[in-house]
Amino acid sequence: MPTVRDVRSKAGEEPITMLTAYDAPTASIVDEAGVDIILVGDSLGNTTLGHETTLPVTVDDMARHTGAVARATEDALIVADMPFLSIGVDEAASIENAGRMLKEEDAHAVKLECGPHTVDLTKKLVQLGIPVMAHLGLTPQHVNQYGGYPRQGTDQEAAERILELAEAHENAGAFSLVLEHVPSNLAAEVTDAIDIPTIGIGAGPDCDGQVLVVDDAVGLSEWTPSFSKQFGDVRGEMESAIDDYVAAVESGEFPAAEHGHEESDLEELY
Ligand code: KIV
Ligand code: NA
Q1: Given this structure, which CATH class describes domain 4-232?
Q2: Which terminus of the chain is more exposed, N or C, with fewer CB under 10 A?
């Protein structure tokens, strides 16, 4: 069974790899590639559910997709993202929502978009046996506060706040920290300052690991952020396969005899 301790012990030795997945087939491919951590990100709101932001994503959405990923994964550590307002409003509800991902859906840990309000919650979750991955820098659930998705930690005060929160979440027991869209020198400083692994996205090369949204990485998304990279052209592959299918049906080329539509020896019905 993959554990958060494996992730911690890899830090500083070898780069940690993390990708999102939201469904069983993608999870099995990511897992078989040997990716260390599969994040069932609330980015599924954008990628899979077609919303403009992650805000409409529900605990039920996360539970459904976490279960699908877990059923298809053997080796990777599975981290379930906690969606907007599922944590931080009420402690009991936060614990119940996070606990559901482990208890009912076979995640190994949860990820929280963090701020001062998640320090005590992290401590409590860890005490209860729910490992926590913290997330600082750009936290997309704050899109309405940001007015978009700007880089974070770009001035001295903001950078210090991120460093302080990183240390606070390490002390609260988080096993790792995602740093999203922050200057690479800030990510490097945070990585130096804390012992738990940092996993960067748009945070430069000096984190202990990297994460991308799988749709962006494989080239399925229509749009990808500038800090991402397309390692394939899945959208192009699907477009060409589907064009071929349509053409084959329209021309009568599919289905052919080899596709198993033999006649039976029925007598004529009329
Ligand atoms: O939801 C998500 O995919 C994330 C990663 C980008 C870190 O939070
Ligand atoms: Na997320």
Answers
A1: alpha beta
A2: C
